[in-house]
Hints:
Layout: H1 11-23, H2 30-43, E1 47-51, H3 54-64, E2 72-75, H4 82-89, E3 93-96, H5 108-117, E4 121-127, H6 136-145, E5 149-153, E6 161-162, E7 165-166, E8 173-177, E9 190-194, H7 197-206, E10 211-213, E11 216-217, H8 228-258, E12 264-265, E13 273-274, E14 280-284, H9 289-298, H10 327-332, E15 336-339, H11 347-358
Parallel strand pairs: 2-3, 2-4, 4-5, 5-8
Antiparallel strand pairs: 1-9, 6-7, 6-13, 8-9, 10-11, 12-14, 14-15
Helix pairs in contact: 1-8, 2-8, 3-4, 3-7
This protein binds pyridoxal-5'-phosphate (PLP).
Amino acid sequence: MIYISKPLIGQEEIDAVINVIKSGALASGSVVTEFENEFSNYLKASYAVATSSGTTALEIALKASGIGKGDKVLTTPFSFIASTNAILYAGANPVFADIDEKTYNISADSIEKALISESDIKALLIVHLYGQSCDMDKILEITKKYNLVLIEDCAQAHGAEWKGKKAGTFGDAAAFSFYPTKNMTTSEGGMVVTNKSEIASTAKLLINHGMETRYYHQRIGYNYRMTNISAAIGLCQLKKLDLFNTTRRKNAAFFDTNITNPKLVLPYTSLDGKHVYHQYTLKVKDGLRNKLADYLHKHEVGYGIYYPLSIPQQHCYRNFDFNKNYPVTDRIKEEVLSIPVHPALTVDEKETIVKVLNGFQE
Ligand SMILES: Cc1ncc(COP(=O)(O)O)c(C=O)c1O
């Protein structure tokens, strides 16, 4: 079986975890601080606050940016559900704008349409899906024009760039996930990134029970802290992130050149961005996506369907008065299929993937 994802954990990570365990300082401490510093340096951002997951990072990014009860937050209907749940956890109301036909990221045109039809939208939460940056020129123009708070969900976009600037440094705040399938991992974990000192200090307070001085609680906060054990893994993984991403991009280039099946549309990549291929996502023509999925399963090639339903169509939101129909999303969700592109793929595995895909017929 060729797996759709595989974390690359080396002896460095194992040694680093053992060192933390031997130190006895298992919970949040100096290793977390070092990871926060290294991560913000990597992105060329001013501040980073480590959290327990990408989901908690998103919730805190929103809350620390001043989003709360009753605020309307515009977001994409085509993402992992956490990007919408975080808006709800903040007490705010999600509204959706359809995606771009080629990149599958939220479309600037549909954002503008939504802003014209709903006047009181306070924030925009974008997702750099599959490792490709949204069109930040257009998005920054819109956020300026409409005076919106901008939150970036970078759970799938560690190291991705738009015109040489790293995803996660454009908005008021950004959130990263370090779940094991991501471009780098800490086991579970997340990071809030911001260039604004007030947002960073509020985020720090919120993830630690609103407490600056021990047992004096200024706000009702949470325990969303990262552990030193996770941060030790993160420090090792961060050193390897550029190499992981280069390997992902080389794997993607190999697929671009060698997948020739006319039933498959290769991923579109904007020349203005640097795609880090969290996923390599094919579009399958002629209603054959599910047939291709069965065929890949039979040939022991792992695949993923990200995502089979739009977010507003999820059962858990059946009683919410969300608009449920987004024409581009509703079509794309039936057509996309992601194949393994992770840096642990061997040459043989990549050749097998190409051979199997090129052999797929109606
Ligand atoms: C786009 C997106 N947002 C948020 C998350 C949530 O991250 P986590 O699983 O670390 O909570 C994920 C992770 O799957 C994601 O893909």
